[in-house]
Structures are given as C-alpha cells and as structure tokens.
C-alpha cells in the first residue's frame, strides 16, 4: 500500500539512494532538508515526477517540522550533523542532533504517525569489548554525535510509550557507496586510497593495517530502511544493527581497492603506534525482525564505487 513518507535530510547521501526505492514502490515522498549540502539538481528531477515535494527548512524549527509532518504516514529521520563536526562544534551538534530529533519525534507522535525509522549509528557502542557487536551489548558513546544518537533512541522510546508511534533505530555501521562526501568520517580512508591509486601512488597504511571496519553498501542501507518502514509493529521499538558482520581490515581494504582501480602497486606501511580497533555487527536481529541481510559484498561494492562518476 502506497503512503506519504517524510524523509528528513533526504537530499543527502543516503537519501539519494533511499528516495528512488520509495518511488519505485509507489510512495509519495516529502523531503525536509535545509539544503546546506543537498544536490538541487537531483531534487529538481525528483520533484518533476510529481511525487516528491521539497520542504526547505531546518529540523531545529519545531513549527516547520510540524507543518511538514502534516499528512505523512511514515517518517525516515536521516538529518544530522556529522561526527567530526560534532566535536568541532558540540553546541550545534546537540542543537540539531538532539533538539532537532526531538522536534521530529514529537511531531510524529502528535500527528499520529505509526512508524518512524531513525538513522542511528554503531558509534553508540564506542570501542567494542567483544565482536560481533550486538544490540544488547554495552554502550559507550564517546562524542556529542554518538551521545545524540543514543539520546535519539531513548526519545523514540519515550514517545512510543505515549502514542501509537512505533519505531526502529537502525544502527548503521560504515556506510559507503557512490555519492559519498570525501570527508565522511568513518569511510574517508576509502576516498583517500582511491585518490592515491588513481594518481598511480600506493595507499599508505598506518601500522600493520589491522584496524578494521564493517563496510555496508548504501544500497543495502536504503533497503533496510524500506524494510523497517513495513516491518511488523509487534517486533518494533528496538535498535537494529545494519552492517555485514564482517570486519574488514584496512590492509584488506587497500588490496581490494588496488584490484578495483586496476593498478600495479603494493600498499606501503608506515610504522607507528596505532590503537587497533575492530568493528563487526551482529546482524541476526536484522534478519529476524526485518528480514534483511546484505546483498553487496565488499569487492563488488568497492568496484561499484570506483566505477561511479562521483567516486
């Protein structure tokens, strides 16, 4: 059944992959975005279909959020200030990521929205004590961004207990793919390696390259969001990891990208003390609750990224 979905931050990286999936299944989409980083050309093409509306506003303004929420059945909340900017300006981070999120959730509850899907983050775990990282494991958010994501989950729980609203907080791991900004905090290493490889230079790795991440393709992330919009309300009101369950070391990433770019170089290792951290998601809840599992493996995804015009 088609519906009207409000997507905050829908002009951004994940929105660029989510909105087409929503349109393909017959939904109407209202994008609430301040367009500080959005692609106006892409938005204009969507609006021209007659099924997408842009509300150029900021989630910090409660009245604007309430107005944008009118007539929407479901909500995807993507809008946020990134993790690196949150440490540079904690005030703005709390203002947007906590106050803004509260505006979205409160408006959703007031308007009788039945489902909110919130873009949370694996950063709520901090440095994991064990792998894989499970939703019920210990949380140690370390920055204003991470703290705000955890707070957002708690706010959703608060409003769901006082309304008909149900929710999923999708804890995204290291999201990558075509269209990502070069400055993306957790995956900037990809862009750095690709730039060097395209210049015929080897990637330079600190230490032995044992530090790892769980890279999940943005197409699969968008799929997870769509599936969370439809999932059974009886299974809702929980956080859900969205990753691959595979911890890919920086050294392995470098070799995968060397093959994708097609250059004959070897990674260079820069001896230095490095805090080796590892990340890998326990994705059993995603399969159980959403019916979701990743479909794009690292090699295919990195080739897709390298081949894209925006990579």
From TrEMBL:
It holds the Pfam family Epimerase. This is UDP-glucose 4-epimerase. Gene3D superfamilies: NAD(P)-binding Rossmann-like Domain (3.40.50.720), UDP-galactose 4-epimerase, domain 1 (3.90.25.10). SUPFAM superfamilies: NAD(P)-binding Rossmann-fold domains. Residues 5-243 form the NAD-dependent epimerase/dehydratase domain. It comes from the Bacteria. InterPro entries: Epimerase_deHydtase (IPR001509), Lipid_A_modif_metabolic_enz (IPR050177), NAD(P)-bd_dom_sf (IPR036291). It comes from Blastococcus aggregatus.
């Amino acid at each position: 059944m088609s519906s009207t979905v409000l997507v905050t931050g829908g002009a951004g990286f994940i929105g660029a992959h989510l909105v087409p999936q929503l349109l393909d299944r017959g939904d109407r989409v209202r994008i609430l975005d301040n367009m500080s980083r959005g692609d106006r050309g892409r938005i204009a093409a969507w609006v021209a279909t007659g099924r997408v509306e842009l509300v150029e506003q900021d989630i910090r303004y409660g009245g604007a959020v309430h107005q944008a929420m009118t007539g929407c059945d479901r909500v995807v909340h993507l809008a946020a200030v990134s993790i690196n900017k949150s440490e540079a300006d904690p005030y703005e981070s709390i203002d947007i990521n906590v106050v803004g999120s509260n505006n979205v959730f409160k408006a959703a509850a007031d308007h009788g929205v039945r489902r909110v899907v919130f873009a949370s983050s694996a950063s709520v775990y901090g440095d994991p004590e064990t792998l894989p990282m499970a939703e019920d494991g210990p949380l140690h958010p370390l920055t204003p961004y991470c703290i705000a994501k955890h707070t957002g989950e708690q706010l959703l729980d608060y409003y769901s207990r006082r309304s008909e609203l149900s929710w999923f907080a999708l804890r995204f791991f290291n999201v990558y793919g075509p269209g990502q900004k070069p400055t993306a905090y957790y995956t900037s290493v990809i862009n750095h390696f690709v730039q060097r490889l395209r210049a015929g230079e080897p990637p330079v790795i600190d230490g032995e390259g044992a530090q790892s991440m769980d890279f999940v393709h943005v197409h699969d992330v968008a799929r997870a969001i769509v599936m969370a919009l439809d999932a059974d309300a009886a299974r809702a009101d929980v956080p859900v990891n969205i990753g691959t369950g595979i911890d890919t070391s920086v050294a392995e990433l470098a070799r995968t990208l060397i093959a994708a770019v097609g250059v004959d170089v070897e990674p260079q290792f820069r001896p230095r003390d490095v805090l080796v951290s590892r990340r890998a998601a326990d994705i059993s809840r995603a399969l159980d609750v959403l019916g979701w599992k990743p479909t794009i493996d690292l090699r295919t995804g990195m080739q897709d990224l390298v081949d894209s015009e925006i990579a």
